[in-house]
Amino acid sequence: xxxxxxxxxxxxxxxxxxxxxxxxxxxxxxxxxxxxxxxxxxxxxxxxxxxxxxxxxxxxxxxxxxxxxxxxxxxxxxxxxxxxxxxxxxxxxxxxxxxxxxxxxxxxxxxxxxxxxxxxxxxxxxxxxxxxxxxxxxxxxxxxxxxxxxxxxxxxxxxxxxxxxxxxxxxxxxxxxxxxxxxxxxxxxxxxxxxxxxxxxxxxxxxxxxxxxxxxxxxxxxxxxxxxxxxxxxxxxxxxxxxxxxxxxxxxxxxxxxxxxxxxxxxxxxxxxxxxxxxxxxxxxxxxxxxxxxxxxxxxxxxxxxxxxxxxxxxxxxxxxxxxxxxxxxxxxxxxxxxxxxxxxxxxxxxxxxxxxxxxxxxxxxxxxxxxxxxxxxxxxxxxxxxxxxxxxxxxxxxxxxxxxxxxxxxxxxxx
Length: 416
Hints:
The chain is of the alpha/beta class and 416 residues long. It has helices at 17-29, 40-51, 63-74, 80-106, 129-136, 147-151, 163-180, 184-187, 199-202, 210-214, 218-225, 230-246, 263-269, 282-297, 306-330, 342-347, 349-356, 365-377, 397-403, 405-415; strands at residues 6-8, 118-121, 142-144, 251-255, 274-279, 337-341, 385-387.
């Protein structure tokens, strides 16, 4: 059933009254109205205490964490709830690392596995990646990363009975997000049992673009873009092996726009990928994503400046497209890509799935029925309607066409 809720790109500050009241009270309760800074040593000590474990691994690299914490403390202007969430998230990521290392030591055969051959959905944000990801989940041979696994890929207990705890944590996180920003699900549903982006595995290394999508962290973002991401993808491959050791499959189905910037590293660390590049007119998908960023940032700060979000992400998305196009250009015979047009995915999802499955021998009738049922269960507008316009961000079609001219050439060619 579709919701009648309408969420626009200009109403992102419409938070629940309880949220604003709690922030106000927490601010007043702090000495001189300040909130204590995040401190790496305290966060790491807390993660060790809560997990009862000590070893982050011989190759743990703490510079990314140092730089992220500095940006969060001095640039992000986190409000008290944002500071609380950031603190808990960092502690959880450190806890994941501690638990993963314990699993690797106890069961070294985990890392002896090859990563399952992956389908990797790599289109820009708001190009139908979530819709396609959820459709592909209907194939029982596909190993997908569920939200509860993405938050906690390493079980809490070595005898594997920690699964229920991970699900409970994810369900609580889903409810909390609904309480804090009720309209966000109309933009991007985050359901505890649904498939989730594997960028959350890279977050464990503190090398990902997640922070800049949710907070203003310019010095961290600048450093990240200039830094080799091999460490993130190498560790991400370890976590994938830990996950498939817990639940095997025939192939991974991974998804994150983040990967568009790092396709060579996917190829290096994740086996033999089948890239699925979803395409949508940037004059449509970019304002949709800018709206999503604004709606997510209010969970962390009162200081959401639309112009700043626009400047950062219009440049960043163009950079990501250029990196993806450069890889595609140099890859032999165009690389291992299947192109999926957003308009066709919405109009004829079964046709697009058939195109993807050509290299897997086609889709048998029972599986096609599963796909059709999955599509019916996740209609567009299920949680509401998301409205946005270029003008909301001071942009014109000409601005984006000029900045993304090379991609528009490919997009127009594929649209014929």
